[in-house]
Design goal:
mainly beta; eleven-stranded mixed β-sheet; 33% strand; globular
Length: 258
């Protein structure tokens, strides 16, 4: 997903009306108006499901995670997960306590690599989950981290910036990618399990990298969102690629902005 998401609402289109002119077999002109089934029966199309927490859009998603905080400087947040069933959005789990960036929140356009803030916006979820521990059974692909697994956090590496990378070089201090590149396999307990939040992917500039949903509540993060491991495992097992999940990092901003 790109760094900047469009806030333009989708445009609805009226049902088409087809007019056919024919001639009856017995003679005489007959005009047949064929209207969409809903209009012919007098019934209107069912309304779109009301989105949770006043969200303006979810880009077709059927699973949405919303993270909110009391202020722009807050490092403690609340995570809520929603799913739509039979046209109705509902909480999938109870609200969860979360930790975010040690310097609070920042709009995506103003954030910079290493500034310790959590970016605001609506994002997709990466197609692969990772962890230093074995998979607990997820619908998404799971990769168990091994020595040499890195997350490239060096803005000078071009297209490789903000991506998963592997190397036979397992010397973290002298890793082949430079910058603030993380040695993921050494990230326990934080990286016991993690999902990638697709902020700045593919990278559009040095706005930041390695924004994950991962394990831990003991301290603020470097920009990621973290929750208790038992809660994270529930979330990861719940998420489905077919539901096109989104994560809304609203922070102190009203979710209706997204």
């Amino acid at each position: 997903m790109s760094l900047f998401a469009s806030n333009a609402p989708a445009t609805s289109r009226p049902a088409s009306v087809v007019v056919r002119l024919g001639r009856a077999a017995a003679g005489g002109a007959v005009v047949a108006l064929l209207v969409g089934a809903a209009a012919a029966s007098g019934a209107s199309a069912p309304p779109a499901p009301r989105l949770p927490m006043g969200l303006s859009r979810v880009d077709g998603s059927r699973q949405v995670i919303v993270v909110t905080a009391s202020s722009a400087r807050s490092t403690v947040a609340t995570l809520r997960a929603f799913a739509v069933t039979n046209g109705v959005w509902h909480l999938a789990f109870h609200p969860m306590r979360a930790r975010v960036g040690r310097h609070g929140w920042m709009s995506a356009t103003r954030r910079r690599e290493g500034d310790g803030t959590t970016p605001e916006g609506i994002f997709t979820v990466g197609t692969t989950f990772y962890g230093t521990r074995p998979s607990t059974g997820t619908a998404f692909r799971f990769h168990r981290l091994v020595p040499g697994d890195y997350w490239d956090e060096n803005p000078t590496t071009g297209a490789a910036y903000n991506t998963f990378r592997h190397s036979s070089n397992t010397n973290c201090a002298r890793n082949p990618f430079g910058g603030g590149t993380e040695c993921l396999w050494r990230g326990s307990p934080a990286y016991n399990y993690l999902a990638v939040i697709d902020f700045n992917t593919p990278a559009a500039g040095p706005f930041g990298s390695g924004i994950f949903l991962h394990t831990g509540l003991a301290a603020a993060t470097s920009g990621c969102v973290s929750v208790a491991q038992v809660e994270l495992v529930r979330i990861l097992r719940w998420l489905r690629p077919s539901a096109s999940p989104r994560i809304v990092l609203a922070g102190p901003t009203a979710p209706s902005r997204y």
